Amino acid sequence: MCRYRETDAYRRAVVVAMQRIPFFRPLTDSPAVRKELLADFEALLVHGGYVRGPEVTCFEKQLSSRMGGAVTVSVGNGTDALLAAFMALGLKRGDEVIVPSFTYPAATEMLLLLGITPVLVDVCEDTFNLDPGLLTDALSEKTRAIVPVHLFGLCAEMEPILAFARKHDLFVVEDAAQSLGAVYAFSDGTRQQAALMGDVGCTSFFPTKNLGGLGDGGAVFARDAGLAAKVRSLVNHGQGGRRHEHEQTGFNSRLDTVQAIALLRFLPDLEKHLACRRTLAGRYECGLCDCDGLVLPEMAPGHTFNQYAVRVLDNRRDELGACLAENGIDTMVYYPLGNHQQKAYTSRIRKGSAMPCTENLTRSLISLPIFPGLAEREQDRIIRTIRKFFSGK
Ligand SMILES: *Cc1c(COP(=O)(O)O)cnc(C)c1O
Q1: In the chain, is it the N or the C terminus that has fewer CB atoms within a 10 Å radius of its CB?
Q2: What's the gap in Å between 47 CA and the centre of ligand 1?
Q3: What is the Å distance from ligand 1's center to 297 Cα?
């Protein structure tokens, strides 16, 4: 007879499964949130405006007001936001665009789709963001734009990037997919939000982002109303003011009404959720700062901590990940490869610099659970488990 259920191993596995701390838990885990959403969806089922419903316009207005009045075009996802931005700026085959190698490769991928050459550069070891000191060497006569990515919720060093772009007449397209609400401070004391500093800013409403929906979604922000109008037309098959009159070759990428409804519910809580991420980051810092063998991210002002990624020294990253997994704690490796190491792109990109930091980070970074709704007692268990790992007890 099978006595497996009476073994210690089985009992341990059950305990671990019951106390599992996921890497991310959606807001819809809350019955109160579900109840509100269901009432809104009921209304959608009645009015039936599933595409371009009134909630989409309403969401764009509210988001625009949250973003200091920037013109806001909602789209189907953050990747399409980048594609539309590149197209609207008139970037074309043969052009070069500077992109950091250490990031999710959406920008690189969209550039390649357009026949544009991504020129990949290394990042800073401590911020994980594009190293502005490498721009000069990456520049060529074909360079038309820079895509600073505000990785993990922290703004890239925009001041030198914008100055470089101005000097060399380059567009700046911000990839703010992970950093909606992040703030950058210029040396003269002025502050500006991620996605509003360059010519065009792109963000994503993928469920795990700072403002996450119930599926795919994204938005483009532009200072220039004409550019925004071009984006709006591009993501609606190139139609301008009039239906069935196609003024340019575009594509189809609109925010679903279902997503707009969810995002309208979540947007008013964005500030609260960002504060929550920062509080959790502060608690990680307090709990882990004396662990030899760990390098924690700086609690930089304006950082929104979409991810809490720590550097594990001495090649022990995977060992730490395995230890946390054994204890029912989920982690992620962002990113195991730089864009320049991806098989799909290697032959078509240009390397604008050597990549020591990117390659080092692919081997040493691990991301710990951080999301609004992560309980203190859960986080304390994560901290205890990590401390135990490093103290060898
Ligand atoms: C998520 C993400 C994207 C793409 O957004 P999607 O909505 O998933 O298409 C682009 N860039 C970065 C850095 C991202 O993290």
Answers
A1: N
A2: 31
A3: 21
How many CB atoms neighbour CB 215 within 10 A? 14
- For residue 80, give the ligand 1 atom closest to its CA: 9
Task: Inform me whether the pLDDT recorded for 13 exceeds 90.
Answer: no
Band (pLDDT 50/70/90 cuts) for residue 5 is confident
Q: What is the overall mean pLDDT for the chain?
A: 96
Pairing of the two strands 117-121 and 350-351: parallel
Please give the Cα distance from 84 to 82 (Å, whole number).
5
Verdict on whether the full-model pTM lies above 0.90: yes
SS3 49: coil
**Buried b or exposed e, range 218-242, using 16+ CB within 10 angstroms:** bbbbbeeeebbbbbbbbbbbbbeee
pLDDT in tens, 25-35: 999 999 999 99
**Which atom of ligand 1 is least distant from the CA of 205?**
7
Q: Which of 79, 109, 254 to mutate to test the pocket of ligand 1 (most atoms within 8 A of CB)?
A: 79
Q: Compute the C-alpha angle 313/319/320, nearest 5°.
A: 70
Looking at the predicted structure, is the pLDDT value of residue 1 above 60? no
